[in-house]
Amino acid sequence: MAKARILAVDDQRYFRAFLEDILRGEGYEVRSAENGEEALQYLETGTYDVIVTDVVMPGISGTELVERVKARRPEQDIIVVTGVGDVRTAVDAMRSGASDYLLKPLDPTLLARSLESILQRRRLRHEHASLMAENLEYLGALSLYERSMALFSTYALGPLASRVLDGLCLELRAEGGAIWLAESGDTDRLTLLGTRGLPAGQREPECLALDAMPEELQPLLEFGAAPYIPPAPEPALWVPFRDGGPLLGLARISARKGARSYEDTDRGVAERFARPASIAIANALRHHSLEHRSFRDPVTESYTAAYLNDFVESEIRKAGRFGRVFSLLLLEHGGLAAGPAGDAERARTAAQLSRVLRGTDLVAAVGKNRFAALLPETDALGATILKRRVREVFRPYEPAAGEDDGIRVATAAFPFDGRDRDALWERLDRRLVEDHESVIRSAGLRGRPFPALLEALSQYGRFLAGDAFGSIARFLLAEVDRRAGERGILGIAPGPAWVSAVRDGLTGLDPATTRCEIVLVSDVRPDVVAGAPVTIVSPQRVGWRSPFLFYYTEGPAYAAVADTAKGTITGLWQSGDRGFVEEIAFQLQKALGMSIGR
Question: How far is residue 161's CA from residue 350's CA, in Å, rounded to a whole number?
Fold first, then answer.
């Protein structure tokens, strides 16, 4: 086998024959061309390891030949041969990209050394390129392995679907897509569990019925089907997920960067990622199935925490797609005993909680002394109303001031309190702490009438200059206007000094859109507020004459009560204690016989 292929170019026939004899004697395969044009023709139909060319030739010179060859093949090695008087021309050829130059009369030994040196460099370049390719392939495989292992770290179908979709988009350099999985174990119907980067307004079908798949996607249903590129005008790649059995899911990857079409190499990339993804999906579905076989707590007969969390994930997806709201309620019973007696009490607690809540609410045991409920289609204020109803039923278990045992209740609403399950649970835990630390519990104020709570506010609140009352009142009315679609309770008694400022803020509210319940406590009943979403009551009816205000909604809660001297506000006592403000708001509602539910 020849050492290498050489193309010898010279316009002198005897020199071409000389080169052929030398090179064949050294074990090379040689082809000769008598000018630059013929050499370029040979290069169109074949490849050569090295070109040996004279510099001075008619037509295309050696220097020009170097430039034209290098423009087409930058890696091509070329030796130029020139006379002693044309060394400058040879230097120009080297600048154009020639690998070496030799002088006439040609020394066969120097030519052999030059060729060996060039071929050795070529071998090193090829070995380096091969090693680089192997390293890149290894790093790619390692990266794929690491991403694949991450898929096995969760059994929750929603997060797993998101990870699989993110991984495919990363591997394929795509900007978006969608994924459907056999969520309920029904392999004839796939449920949408994740989307990425879809154009505004584009909606994906909630379910894919496999017996009604379009004809162009039927190849995906065949056993052992590989990722499929359908004949569509926009670039798309469909990836099936199977683990040796029925179809477990489908992903459609679209919106590729640069709007390029997918190719067979992309199918191979997707198939490599789909293998571990299919195993992870199969494991998650098996885990999901096992959880659902035992979704009832054996002691309380309520649902398990795993079952509740699945429903929370489902509600988050529905709420996100359709603009719905829901809330979670958490009840902690610190007085439960251990052993059979404690189990019996746990069962009674779960039963009582179920009876208090609505038929659509889902109650679950989420710990030895904890119970949670999913409240569908319930905003923050609605959840608070249900929480107070629960408190009334469990009032005998209310801890005394300074004690830790007893019932604590907290609520959190989607999306204001959190947009994922972990954030909602974290907010519930914080609210339990706030409930425990509230002055309502520590001072034993729960259930006290409205005037007594305002009196307590002036005792436990923080002092603020009295001239801030008007600014605070205007700010709260502006908040009501800004949050017009949110339910809440605003109570305000401006007194003579601030009634005009409050009146101006009230008249700017739209009764058709404002959902906040507003109570104005004033002896002045200006006609200008007629038609505004306001209930006006006298100070005698609430049993309190000094100015006060409070605002309770899904956001921060606030209350303040004023101290007056000769009709002038001399100071304010304020509090952001959510439990305190909640008690003030609902005790006023109770005193007035109002029904919150605008």
Answer: 33
DSSP codes joined into one string, 278-316 = HHHHHHHHHHHHHHHHT-B-TTT-SEEHHHHHHHHHHHH
Tokens of 138: 């290894």
The reported pLDDT for the residue numbered 302 is 86
Looking at the structure, do residues 354 and 461 belong to the same domain, yes or no? no
Strands 189-196 and 207-209: antiparallel
> Looking at residue 179, what DSSP letter applies?
E
What residue spans of 152-263 are helical by DSSP H? Answer: 157-172
Please name which of 336, 338, 395 lies closest in space to residue 369, comparing C-alpha atoms.
336
Residue at which a domain ends, from 437, 459, 482: 437
Rounded to whole angstroms, the Cα distance separating 158 from 475 reads 41
Residues 23 and 6 sit within 8 Å (Cβ to Cβ): yes
Is the pTM above the cut of 0.70?
A: no
Indicate whether 335 and 421 sit together in one domain: yes
Same domain flag for 544 and 416: no
Q: If DSSP codes are grouped into helix, strand and coil, which group holds residue 234?
A: coil
The pLDDT score that the predictor gives to residue 485 is: 84
Is residue 379 left, alpha or beta, with left meaning phi > 0 and alpha meaning psi from -120 to 50? beta
Tell me whether residue 142 is in a domain. no
In a domain, 147, yes or no: no
Q: What pLDDT is stored for residue 402 in this prediction?
A: 47
Query: Who's near 474: CB < 8 A, 6+ residues apart?
Result: 501, 505
DSSP character string of 526-539: -GGGTTSSEEEE-H
Q: Are strands 407-414 and 362-367 parallel, antiparallel or unpaired?
A: unpaired
Total domains in the fold of the chain = 4
What's the token pair of residue 508?
């700017």
> Which CATH number goes with the domain that contains 222?
3.30.450.40
Say what the pLDDT of residue 508 is: 80
The CA radius of gyration of the chain, in Å to the nearest whole number, is: 40
CA 587 from chain center: how many Å?
Answer: 42
**Are 399 and 392 within 8 A, CB to CB?**
no
Give the CA dihedral 304, 308, 311, 312, nearest 10 degrees. Answer: -160
Mean pLDDT of the chain: 83
> Does 150 reside within a domain?
no
Collapsing DSSP to helix, strand or coil, 504 comes out as helix
Q: What is the CATH number of the domain that holds 517?
A: 3.30.870
Using CA atoms in the order 439, 445, 449, 450, what is the torsion angle rounded to 10 degrees? -10
User: What pairs with residue 573 in β-bridges?
Assistant: 463, 561
Residues 6+ apart with CB under 8 A from 409: 329, 330, 331, 332, 387, 390, 391, 394, 435
Quote the domain boundaries for residue 67.
5-124
Distance from C-alpha of 120 to C-alpha of 219, rounded to nearest angstrom: 51
> What is the 8-class DSSP label of residue 199?
P
Tokens matching residue 552: 């309770």
Same domain, 427 and 454: no
Identify the pLDDT of residue 412.
93
Distance, in Å, from the CA atom of 329 to the CA atom of 370, rounded to the nearest integer, reads: 11
